[in-house]
Amino acid sequence: MKIIEVSDYKQMSVKASQHVIAKIRNSDCLTLGLATGGTPKGLYGELIEDHHVNGTSYKCVNTFNLDEYIGLSKEDPNSYYQYMCSNLFSHIDIPLSQTHIPSGMADDAAEECRRYENMIEDAGGIDLQILGIGENGHIGFNEPGTSFQSATHIVDLTESTREANARYFESLDEVPRQAITMGISSIMKSREILLLVSGESKREAMQKLMENDVTENFPASILKKHPKVTIIADSAALDLKRLGQK
Ligand SMILES: N[C@@H]1[C@@H](O)[C@H](O)[C@@H](COP(=O)(O)O)O[C@@H]1O
To answer: Which residues form the Glucosamine/galactosamine-6-phosphate isomerase domain (predicted)?
Structure first.
């Protein structure tokens, strides 16, 4: 894992956007894995600005999002579909038909998981996956204890994850209890991974990621086994002195 330390959230977003833009510009056709949450919002803002200023085009980019809440329709303001439209898709030239997010309203959620996993495979896999990390080490919505072999699947969200995400909802009661998420094996199949980590609330997770063994109790630890992971972390999330790296 290569770690790039940046001063703050803005610099993390700028650095990440440079990485993504270079990748888009250097490929004929790119498949991006996208994340939601507060962390990648700044990255998406930078991509939008670059699209307007420098004209980077997304006409040949395909996207697959990591996850979606079960029970929220595409129209729901808290769905990840809406998040992606308002934070990125509506502001760039990507055809919506090339963007993919699991459906949280499928009659048969298990079938939707299989369909989604197959779609990623049929598209030739993910070239670059953007990831954030939960305070408990979750990636996508893969909570501690998730099998490293897991493909796209249905998850019961932990109370701590529901509480962490409650800030986007009117109340904790409104936060869905389940989600569809790409599995750990789906994420690990990506050819490259870019993990973004910002803020003091992620410091403990970052420390565990650096120091702990690879264990299903801390899902992000699997990233140590991936051949091409770059972590861009700000100094609030990194405490390099404590980690003995400075
Ligand atoms: N499913 C998402 C994850 O993909 C994200 O990484 C995590 C951290 O969110 P934030 O970036 O807001 O801290 O939150 C959610 O649970």
So the answer is: 16-227
